[in-house]
Amino acid sequence: xxxxxxxxxxxxxxxxxxxxxxxxxxxxxxxxxxxxxxxxxxxxxxxxxxxxxxxxxxxxxxxxxxxxxxxxxxxxxxxxxxxxxxxxxxxxxxxxxxxxxxxxxxxxxxxxxxxxxxxxxxxxxxxxxxxxxxxxxxxxxxxxxxxxxxxxxxxxxxxxxxxxxxxxxxxxxxxxxxxxxxxxxxxxxxxxxxxxxxxxxxxxxxxxxxxxxxxxxxxxxxxxxxxxxxxxxxxxxxxxxxxxxxxxxxxxxxxxxxxxxxxxxxxxxxxxxxxxxxxxxxxxxxxxxxxxxxxxxxxxxxxxxxxxxxxxxxxxxxxxxxxxxxxxxxxxxx
Length: 334
Ligand SMILES: NC(=O)c1ccc[n+]([C@@H]2O[C@H](COP(=O)([O-])OP(=O)(O)OC[C@H]3O[C@@H](n4cnc5c(N)ncnc54)[C@H](OP(=O)(O)O)[C@@H]3O)[C@@H](O)[C@H]2O)c1
Hints:
The protein is an alpha/beta fold. It is 28% helix and 26% strand. It folds into 2 domains: 4-117 and 300-331, Quinone Oxidoreductase, Chain A, domain 1; 131-271, 3-Layer(aba) Sandwich (Rossmann fold), CATH 3.40.50. The chain contains 9 helices and 15 strands.
């Protein structure tokens, strides 16, 4: 079978720079992995925008189809675990990095990357969550693993109107935490309150440049999606025994801190890596997201907008400029 399909392809221009186009591809263009999947939905993550603009730390070789998320049906698989027609999710690993990703109607990946879609989610809902929702779930899991409970106080979410941030707000508030959302978008307050945030702060409110090693204890837990000075400030203001889940770097990959929050308050700085999450934890997180942690229909409606491949390019520019609110689902056609 060597069917044609369409995909967003990012190519290097001979005169320099990168261009994107929706192009016809063939199944024979895909790598020789054992699971062929017809992608119905994908989603846009910050990392996809980096891949789509030639970021060599994400994608080494071009032409390339980004898309670190995909949900659809199995067409072929060498694994006894899957049969044609099974609905599955693939996120992370090398998908969309140096393996052609979910911004195409077909992917061919190792079966070991595939997660069976839980009953409680539709394919579209699974991509409204996507890597962002999965990462938010992992971050919440880490706070709970380190003993952060709703009784201990407020949880700060930075970059709160972004994909990871808004889904962290939804999950934490569903679990009974008092969520404080930090956002750079002056008009996102009502939307974040609707998703479950109890208090809204500006980026300046959560950025301290006093040079102090410790600040007044404020946060029982933190989900930080931005890095840099906001992360450093959050660590300094975390309560004794609290935990900071560090999962992103849109503001900066740098972190300037002292050891004092760690040795005087026992604060934990917990990294979150969604791409290589081992399969048992991966399956558990998807199960949570399809059950107790699942956003309400109203939250899904408020968070996710849908585009086709033809409408994706402007969204890629918008996410790089921090202009997207919530999640962008990519509809690959029925
Ligand atoms: N560790 C992992 O496994 C993992 C997985 C997924 C994503 N990530 C990372 O997590 C981060 C967020 O990803 P995402 O997909 O949620 O991206 P996103 O949808 O673009 O959200 C990022 C949000 O950060 C805020 N922001 C943007 N620029 C900023 C700046 N200069 N300073 C402070 N805040 C800024 C904005 O929210 P406000 O306007 O509300 O402030 C923006 O909406 C990215 O760095 C991504 O690479 C990591």
